Amino acid sequence: MDFIRVLPQLYMFRFSVGQAYLWRDGDDLTLVAPVTVTPRRSCRTRCGAPVWIRRIVLTHCHRDHVGAAGELAARHGAQALAHRLDAPVVRGEAPVPQPVLLDWEIPLYEHGLTVPPAPPTRVDRELEDGDLLNFGDGARVVHSPGHTDGSIAVHLPHHGVLFTGDLVAGAGRVTPGVFDVDRAALLVSMRRLASLAPTTVCFGHGDPVTGDVARLLPEAAGEETATGEATSAAAPAGGDTGR
Known about the structure:
- By secondary structure, the protein is an alpha/beta fold.
- Helix content is 23%, strand content 27%.
- The protein has helices spanning 42-45, 63-66, 69-76, 87-90, 105-112, 183-194, 213-227, and strands spanning 2-7, 10-15, 18-25, 28-32, 52-57, 79-83, 125-127, 132-133, 139-143, 152-156, 161-165, 168-169, 175-176, 200-203, 209-210.
- The strands form three sheets. The protein has a seven-stranded mixed beta sheet with strand order 1-2-3-4-5-6-7. It has a six-stranded mixed beta sheet with strand order 8-9-10-11-14-15, with no helix packed on it. Strands 12-13 form a two-stranded antiparallel sheet.
- Helix 6 runs antiparallel to helix 7.
- The two termini are 22 Å apart.
């Protein structure tokens, strides 16, 4: 696991199956998109004094983004937050939605099934589009369906930061995410995110991008619309399991 400082208040955990992000407001920590492995010592030893995670934001219901959430919430006394449409899946009350796979995605998807299923995880707050979250000087929930029905992005307009979850991938170049339930809806969501004009974009798979983001996001959505399919370069590093 690598622990990288992206911005003065933003840190990234890089795991073999993707990334998680830690936003720090003083002693108040918010974890966005936790993965199947729980970060343990880095929060305490590399962010300074011992601190506790106050909230865990789940960008969608897939196992590689939910697996560690329950353990972390219990350990830190943190709230777990997810969109209303994905919350039943996170809680284990509904099945994981099946993606509509492109031909080249099938072997990648089957390989990702080796990731253990996520245990049922409580959701303390069900989110809706436009909800405000108490971190980052006013974080706003942006419902971004397409990867899953309840996928969300989180926008910190005061800081120009956007967390996309798996709606967008940054593996080598900015591309639409893979293993989606509705590709057309995903492209619409991407164009909406581009209209927010972020200056730093943090993906679930692939390193964050800073600078020129306003051009890269709409170009990625427009290129997909023009070609009708993604290339294998869109496959996220480490592999989004899609389940």
